[in-house]
């Protein structure tokens, strides 16, 4: 098989040249059509003196010789009209028809032979399928680990410290993707979540990096828990069982749900399944409603449904992205868990 075979066998081009002599012969005949057509076009144009003559191929009518309408009266008698266009006439000659049959036959035979060779190859591999799958899994794991190691070395990642104590502390954190596409240096950011400071409200102007900061935190946490080095100067990560995200704004027309309904449905799923060891990203909940209603919704999300308010009572590690007013203008006596 070739190094990068197509997804589907139906179009051919899977078996590498040199594997089967008969297949190579049929392919050579089919692939040589372009050279033959170029030579035929030059020959007929010079012989007949028709500067508009050209040879081409159409998926419906096959090969043809095309001549402009103004010169069509000069074609010889053995030119058989195949198609009439607005400004041109298309013809076929016995020589071209014979070659067309040969080429189309060669393409079909090449594809049929290639499919049979492909199936025979699979029959030979079938007894070794289990060993091949184990080898593929091992190579895939090695590929991931080697790439993570290369990225850690070349991009100056740090080794995270996984601890039993709940919380996340990141010093000099960077977004692993955004950092690579920026033309200017990425500005590193710290992050701190602890049992006494479980929630952050991230505010700032548009295009200020709020969403990038949130996603950066989730990516660093995920990379740490899969055993990778992370893009930061120093990282301490406590237990994490899940990462929940409520990001983006889109309705669900097929189900008859508005953008707000989609947000609330996904938010309810988070509230019912998040634990004290879950990291939650909430990107501007309640957009499309008033500032006060957005703030009330975010305030209510600090507690599990049905539980009374008791100070800093977030049950997980939520990061809220908010606009400049909804996050900072809290009610009197309401102490924020953290504002960034």
TrEMBL record:
Residues 1-181 form the DNA mismatch repair protein MutS core domain. Coiled coil: none annotated. One of its GO terms (biological process) is mismatch repair. The keyword Glycoprotein does not apply. GO terms for molecular function: ATP binding; ATP-dependent DNA damage sensor activity; mismatched DNA binding. GO terms for cellular component: cytosol. PANTHER family: DNA MISMATCH REPAIR PROTEIN MSH1, MITOCHONDRIAL, DNA MISMATCH REPAIR PROTEIN MUTS FAMILY MEMBER. Belongs to the DNA mismatch repair MutS family. This is DNA mismatch repair protein mutS. It comes from Enterobacter agglomerans. The lineage of its organism: Bacteria, Pseudomonadati, Pseudomonadota, Gammaproteobacteria, Enterobacterales.
């Amino acid at each position: 098989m070739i190094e990068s075979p197509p997804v589907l066998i139906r179009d051919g081009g899977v078996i590498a040249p040199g594997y089967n002599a008969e297949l190579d012969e049929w392919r050579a005949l089919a692939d040589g059509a372009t050279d033959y057509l170029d030579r035929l076009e030059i020959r007929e144009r010079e012989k007949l003196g028709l500067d508009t003559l050209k040879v081409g191929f159409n998926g419906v009518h096959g090969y043809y010789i095309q001549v402009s309408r103004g010169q069509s009266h000069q074609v010889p008698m053995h030119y058989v009209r195949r198609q009439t266009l607005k400004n041109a006439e298309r013809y076929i000659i016995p020589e071209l028809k014979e070659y067309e049959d040969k080429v189309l036959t060669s393409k079909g035979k090449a594809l049929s032979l290639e499919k049979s060779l492909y199936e025979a190859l699979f029959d030979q591999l079938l007894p070794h399928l289990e060993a091949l799958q184990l080898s593929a899994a091992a190579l895939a794991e090695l590929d991931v680990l080697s790439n993570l190691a290369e990225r850690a070395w070349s991009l100056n990642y740090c080794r995270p410290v996984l601890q039993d104590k709940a919380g996340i502390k990141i010093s000099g954190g960077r977004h692993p993707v955004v950092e690579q596409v920026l033309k200017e240096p990425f500005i590193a950011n710290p992050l701190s979540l602890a049992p006494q400071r479980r929630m952050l409200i991230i505010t700032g102007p548009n295009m200020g990096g709020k969403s990038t900061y949130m996603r950066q935190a989730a990516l660093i946490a995920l990379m740490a828990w899969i055993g990778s080095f992370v893009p930061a100067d120093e990282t301490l990560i406590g237990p994490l069982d899940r990462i929940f995200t409520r990001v983006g704004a889109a309705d669900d027309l097929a189900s008859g749900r508005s953008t707000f309904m989609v947000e609330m449905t996904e938010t309810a799923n988070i509230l019912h399944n998040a634990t004290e060891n879950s990291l939650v990203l909430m990107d501007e909940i309640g957009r499309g409603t008033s500032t006060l209603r957005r703030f009330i919704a975010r305030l209510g999300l600090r507690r599990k449904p049905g539980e009374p308010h008791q100070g800093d009572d977030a049950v997980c590690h939520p990061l809220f992205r908010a606009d400049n007013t909804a996050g900072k203008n809290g009610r009197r006596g309401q102490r924020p868990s953290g504002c960034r």
